[in-house]
Design goal:
There is one protein chain. The protein contains 9 helices and 14 strands. With about 280 residues, the protein is α+β, with helices and mostly antiparallel strands. The longest helix has about 30 residues, at about 245-275. The relative contact order is 0.11.
Length: about 280
């Protein structure tokens, strides 16, 4: 829709041009921004004009620019040992939008919007991603994405702080993952999303989002018993309540999906162990 309160759109080329004037805010892809009136907003500062590389891979980090689109993220090629690679596309498909939305919606915009069903929040939280935040004084600060989103449409970002990128440790990309999502209708908003991860050292983590007001992660030193995992999920205290699911349903479905993820990862771990022990020692 047209935003009839907007009087200026700036396209910065350098970081020092990001200082916000009164009434201005940052623009990423704008797939949500242009979906409803933005009363009080008079100017936009387009982050895409800075030309950040959408994807960068170092020895230790997969760096995803805040302006990386869903299409660019889903197209990232797997590297050797990246067992978590399927999760990139799985989370992209959780946003039930057309190719036009995928070509516009950005990773950073989805996280900063802080909607419970934000699939990039699910992805980044599940893989222990770090948010790289630019501060108005020319510095930067870092924090786990798991802590960046604190409530519905509420983040810990201060005014004038753009999200520059998220950094996923390559070690987490090597983890085995299991993904589950449920909705009340076939093409409906996520009722809850559960992503479980089994790290090389045996650590097990399950991240619940979509059905909670903020992402929540439970961790164990090893794959837990079903009862222990269920108890941890049931102790979550921030279940979301809207037309897409009541809190008690979201809790019950999260317990069910977490158990499915646990069984999947446990089976994969057992199979891998069996294969290792059956190798010919010669």
């Amino acid at each position: 829709m047209d935003l009839n309160t907007i009087r200026s759109v700036r396209q910065p080329r350098e970081r020092h041009e990001l200082t916000l004037a009164p009434g201005e805010d940052f623009l990423g892809g704008g797939s949500w921004l242009f979906s409803e009136p933005q009363l009080g907003l008079t100017g936009l500062v387009d982050l895409t004009s800075l030309g950040w590389p959408p994807i960068e891979v170092d020895d230790d980090v997969l760096r995803i620019a805040a302006t990386c689109t869903f299409t660019e993220l889903a197209a990232v090629e797997a590297r050797a040992g990246w067992r978590a690679h399927p999760l990139l596309r799985q989370c992209c498909t959780a946003l039930l939008g057309s190719f036009k939305v995928w070509n516009t919606a950005t990773v950073g915009g989805n996280i900063c919007l802080a909607l419970p069903a934000g699939p990039m929040t699910s992805l980044a939280s599940a893989l222990d991603a770090t948010a790289v935040i630019w501060t108005p004084d020319g510095g930067e600060r870092r924090m786990p994405v798991l802590d960046l989103v604190v409530d519905v449409q509420t983040t810990s970002l201060e005014r004038g702080e753009p999200l520059r990128s998220i950094e996923i440790p390559i070690e987490r990309m090597r983890s085995a993952t299991a993904y589950r999502k449920i909705a009340l209708s076939a093409l409906g908003r996520s009722g809850t999303v559960v992503i479980a991860r089994l790290d090389a050292d045996g650590t097990f983590a399950a991240t619940v989002s979509g059905g909670t007001t903020r992402p929540v992660q439970v961790r164990f030193d090893a794959v837990p018993e079903a009862s222990a995992l269920a108890a941890a999920i049931e102790q979550i205290d921030c279940w979301y309540d809207d037309l897409h699911g009541a809190p008690d349903w979201r809790r019950a479905m999260s317990v069910l999906l977490a158990e499915e993820c646990r069984v999947e990862l446990l089976a994969g771990s057992t199979a891998a162990s069996a294969a290792t022990h059956s190798e010919d020692p010669r």
